[in-house]
Design a protein that fits this description.
mainly alpha; 0% strand; globular
Length: 120
């Protein structure tokens, strides 16, 4: 990998992490913090974008920059699991299960939609 590709990974990864933080904050401030709607919005939009990228069949450095650096830094599996764990610890088992089921369903649906859009 060249210096420019590594630089692209760093810049795109950093910007994507900031975008994730910003979207999560906006959604959480409007929807409340009793359920992790911000993380759901981030991961749903990331799944949609990844579906688009998959449909485009990017390879090589383009896939690294778009898929890994950008979408990989934007999405947040670890936060999703941490928030689910916290819901369960707080005795909110229904919300914890809903977070898992809804996130998976919305994520798969969003990825399929993204892929379908590019496939047409």
């Amino acid at each position: 990998m060249t210096f420019w590709v590594w630089s692209g990974v760093a810049v795109l990864g950093g910007l994507s992490a900031i975008a994730r933080f910003a979207l999560d904050g906006v959604v959480a401030s409007r929807a409340g913090r009793s359920f992790p709607y911000g993380t759901l919005a981030v991961n749903a939009s990331a799944s949609f974008l990844l579906g688009l990228v998959t449909g485009l069949a990017l390879t090589g450095n383009a896939l690294l920059l778009v898929g890994t650096a950008t979408i990989g830094s934007y999405s947040t599996f670890s936060t999703w699991m941490l928030e689910t764990h916290r819901l369960a610890e707080d005795g909110e088992m229904g919300a914890a299960v809903a977070n898992i089921v809804v996130s998976l369903a919305v994520g798969v649906g969003a990825a399929a939609l993204g892929r379908a859009i590019v496939g047409r």
